[in-house]
Amino acid sequence: MNENHVYDMIIVGGGPGGYTSALYAARAGLDTIVIEKLSAGGQMSLTWQIDNYPGFENGIDGFSLAEKMQKQAEKFGAKSEYAEVFNMDLTGKLKRVETSSGIYIGKTVVIATGANPRELGLAKEKELIGHGVAYCASCDGMFYKDKIVVVVGGGNSAVSDAALLSRIAKKVIIVHRRDTLRATKIYHDQLMKTENIEFRWNSTVKELLYGERLTGVRLKDTVTGEENIIECDGLFVSIGRKPTTDFLDNQIELDNKGYIVAGENTETSIPGVYAVGDVRTKLLRQIVTAVADGAMAVHMAEEYVEK
Ligand code: NAP
């Protein structure tokens, strides 16, 4: 790579928001590079079946959709680089992005780093990952065929994880800290009708029980304080996500949860820097809203570069 090369747009993160920015930028004739840590797709690539992205009447798996988005952007000239971003200097007219494969310079930067699963913060939680504790049902669900699993959380992710696991596991127990789900209504009825799904309302996981691997969880009733044990083979933690913004080192304004403050026009507190997809403050974090952000960021960046 040539460290003196100045890109029109550097996109950090190769999820749906990142690759849509790349598609629009490359089609607009901007010299564009996507820097992605692992593989295209971000969190989307871990999703087994996506039924709410228009254009695929039978749904599509996230990995395939990610590959298609990457290929489409590259067809118009966008480049991809697999590297980890360590540091950024975004304040000047030329932005500097330090990565494991060298330094990239760009006139504009799109941050599309998404968000990662939140942890419960329990003792031994990290050590038991891969030994009974998991954060991705579509990735690890297959290891729990005919087993008993607990899913923690009451949002859309938790219920779709529970629905997926109910087709693999013998029994799925949803543990939620309140007595109603946060998830969209359409999912409630479907789950209530599923024979091998049980609910433990007003409950939190207080402790992980284990030998060589997870053997159960100790629950605490949030109303009465009573405790009880569920024996289980797996625990899927599905309690929301944490935005990937640590590497920004306080250069950009973040909200109190760590999301980059940016409105529908994706502009951040720094001119020429845009935030797209799950990493920015927004009401609805979906693939369709991430791809819309990608198009908008390029629109704003083109105006900025022209000025
Ligand atoms: P979410 O909507 O923020 O839900 C997180 C859930 O975890 C909530 O029920 C919350 O409880 C619970 N929770 C949070 N911290 C907890 C803790 N420390 N201990 C126990 N429970 C805890 O997150 P999400 O389900 O990951 O969804 C994220 C976004 O993606 C949402 O906008 C969602 O709509 C979207 N999504 C959409 C789809 C779809 O439409 N197909 C699928 C997946 C995700 P409370 O309810 O009490 O706050």
Description:
The strands form 4 sheets. Strands 1, 2, 3, 4, 5, 6 and 17 form a 7-stranded mixed β-sheet that branches. Strands 8-15-9-10-11 form a 5-stranded parallel β-sheet. The protein contains 6 helices and 17 strands. The mean pLDDT is about 95. The chain is an alpha/beta fold. β5 and β6 form a beta hairpin. The protein has 2 domains: about 5-115 and about 240-305, 3-Layer(bba) Sandwich (FAD/NAD(P)-binding domain), CATH 3.50.50.60; about 120-235, FAD/NAD(P)-binding domain (3-Layer(bba) Sandwich). Bound molecules: NADP nicotinamide-adenine-dinucleotide phosphate. Homodimer. Its EC number is 1.8.1.9. This is Thioredoxin reductase. Keywords: Disulfide bond, FAD, Flavoprotein, NADP, Oxidoreductase, Redox-active center. Belongs to the class-II pyridine nucleotide-disulfide oxidoreductase family.
What's the structural blueprint in terms of helices and strands?
Layout: E1 6-12, H1 16-27, E2 32-36, H2 62-75, E3 79-82, E4 85-89, E5 95-99, E6 102-111, E7 115-117, E8 133-134, H3 137-140, E9 148-152, H4 156-166, E10 171-175, H5 185-193, E11 197-200, E12 203-210, E13 214-221, E14 227-231, E15 234-237, E16 241-243, E17 273-275, H6 287-306
The chain binds NADP nicotinamide-adenine-dinucleotide phosphate (NAP).
Keywords: Disulfide bond, FAD, Flavoprotein, NADP, Oxidoreductase, Redox-active center
GO molecular function, one term: thioredoxin-disulfide reductase (NADPH) activity
Cofactor: FAD
